User: Fold Maleylacetate reductase from Kribbella shirazensis.
Amino acid sequence: MHTFLPGRVVFGAGALERVGAEVEALGVRRVLVIATNSARAAADAVQTQLGDRFAGRIDGVAQHVPTEAAEQSRTQARESNADAIVAIGGGSAIGLAKAIALTSSPQQSSATGGATTEGSVGGGGVVVVAVPTTYAGSEMTPVWGETAAGRKSTGVDLRVLPRVVVYDPMLSRGLPVKVTAASVANAIAHCVEAVWTPKADPFTEVVAAEGLRALAGGMREVLATPDDLDARGKLMYGACLAGSALATAGTGLHHKLCHLLGGTYNLPHAETHAAVLPQVARVNASSVPQAKARLEAALGTTDLAAGLFDLFQAAGVPTSLRDLGLTEAQAEEAARTFQPTDNPIPVTEGLVREILSRAWAGTRP
Ligand code: NAD
Assistant:
């Protein structure tokens, strides 16, 4: 079974110029613009395109959508009568737009785990237009997240799925190589995990493999020439596919481990993926042999886990949790407290300990 999600994707160098026309085609009247600090110039351009539809602006966004920031933004959206948001930035800017859309109409959401048919895009409330500047992939998913008192809640609701996504590779051209590499590791994790979650299906497998091919190829090219527009385009295309794979397959053992490590020990979101993914692939991949072969061909390797590890190392992303600041005792505690999840092989405490101790030490699979 595969659920196709609604949504329109506009892609190409210079596509930022089309945001105004896309907004007009949606028939919305009052548009709030949310922009990450690095995207102020792009937000200025969008503001001009919006003309009379421009209803206000939020510049600068915090990571992981703190509830106070979400509440302030909801108030601003309400007071300015906004019926649409253009969010320009990475997962944090798009996450804030989703937080507003989630509460702008009265439908119910469901727990995280993949797409549902609950709600409808926009749901009669505020609709989101996303203009991504990183490769995190949130723009393609109906997944929302919000953080209160250090605890992140997530869920799935079609109301938060952006109605239009405008990918302009020029916007990510200046993303520093280090941030690029971590963001790509995050996207690659969406592709790889998508083949073994309980909701994995043949469509998603094809999307995930093509996403991995584009992301790995684009990453190698960006390492050689950071501002190469074609390479940046390849990464955005890969990010789009990775987000789509996450949207339909949901998350599994790997993402749940990363959320535990990020939430409890405050490890950085994108980098944690690079340390954990090769170790989860090492134990899981042989349970899905066809997908494993597809992903290996996409990565250009005969060993998925080792190939991922080597790519992340070459990109300069830390491949050990120790390097991210986790202590060995914390890794052990995480193994003890992790709640089992659906997975191709049973998730025992011993398996989680094996994954985390290797990820902590950064042992090549
Ligand atoms: P981010 O949005 O916080 O951006 C990272 C940093 O890069 C910020 O400082 C930002 O200002 C800067 N930046 C962004 N674009 C830039 C550019 N083009 N040039 C220079 N600097 C730039 O981080 P992210 O990795 O994009 O997103 C992470 C967040 O997204 C996390 O909260 C994560 O949980 C969430 N996420 C959600 C989903 C989902 O489906 N809901 C999917 C993936 C990630």
In short: The radius of gyration is 19 Å.
